[in-house]
Design a protein that fits this description.
- It contains 14 helices and no strands.
- It is mainly α.
- The longest helix has 17 residues.
- The model has no long low-confidence stretch (mean pLDDT 96).
Length: 231
């Protein structure tokens, strides 16, 4: 448990995932029945995937999430994590199988995560109506879930409902939280929709904010190109 606590502190408070992973793996080596440590390792491997595609090991993330569940079948957070891993692995049908029962589990303390990730899986699987239904449930449970609003915007956009998409992207960016106000992909998405609707001034403002946040990301580069094309 000491190794687990050190790993958690290194990751959550110090932003050192590599060192955290070393201690989390040591926690497992010392206690093979530590479900929390197994889940932490899965989360850390998933974090590496979000940081750098070259260091992504989804197979390891899945293995440790499944082991956490094997040790504790009612480990709802680990079940949610497994669903996210499967989405990243593009195994959308399997992710839906994992997440759908979790979304109905009244004992899960953060149902917006289950509904939000289920909606994400439906979205990536091309089941847009089900995606919208799940994402609406997610954002109803937690109105400040800006990523849920953003994914809802994507679903509306793919259904060619541009007004619905604009509203969802706007709700995502209006959430009063630093991470939400810095949701670069939402600025990019809303800016592109504004261009399609002929609202050049609104589009320029969103695209400029997108570039301001980080011009080196894929979204930032796309926003820069769109700004240049509008001149």
């Amino acid at each position: 448990m000491a190794e687990y606590d050190i790993a958690t502190d290194l990751w959550v408070n110090r932003g050192q995932p590599r060192q955290a992973l070393e201690h989390a793996l040591q926690a497992i080596a010392l206690d093979e029945e530590n479900a929390e440590a197994e889940h932490l390792v899965a989360l850390l491997y998933l974090d590496f995937c979000n940081r750098d595609a070259n260091e992504c090991h989804l197979d390891e993330a899945e293995k440790h999430a499944r082991q956490a569940l094997a040790l504790r079948d009612d480990f709802r957070e680990a079940r949610n994590t497994l669903g996210v891993v499967l989405i990243h692995a593009k195994q959308y049908a399997k992710a839906i199988e994992v997440l759908q029962p979790l979304s109905q589990d009244i004992l899960y303390q953060t149902p917006e995560n289950a509904w939000g990730n289920l909606g994400w899986a439906y979205l990536e699987n091309g089941q847009l109506d089900k995606a919208i239904e799940a994402l609406l449930r997610s954002t109803a449970v937690q109105p400040d879930f800006c990523v849920g609003h953003y994914r809802l915007g994507l679903a509306y956009e793919r259904k060619h409902d541009l007004d619905g998409a604009m509203s969802a992207y706007t709700r995502a960016l209006e959430v009063d939280h630093p991470r939400c106000r810095a949701l670069q992909v939402a600025y990019a998405a809303r800016g592109k929709i504004a261009l399609q609707l002929g609202r050049q001034d609104e589009a320029a403002k969103d695209l400029q904010q997108c570039v301001h946040l980080d011009k080196t990301t894929p979204a930032g580069r796309e926003c820069s190109a769109l700004l240049v094309s509008q001149k």
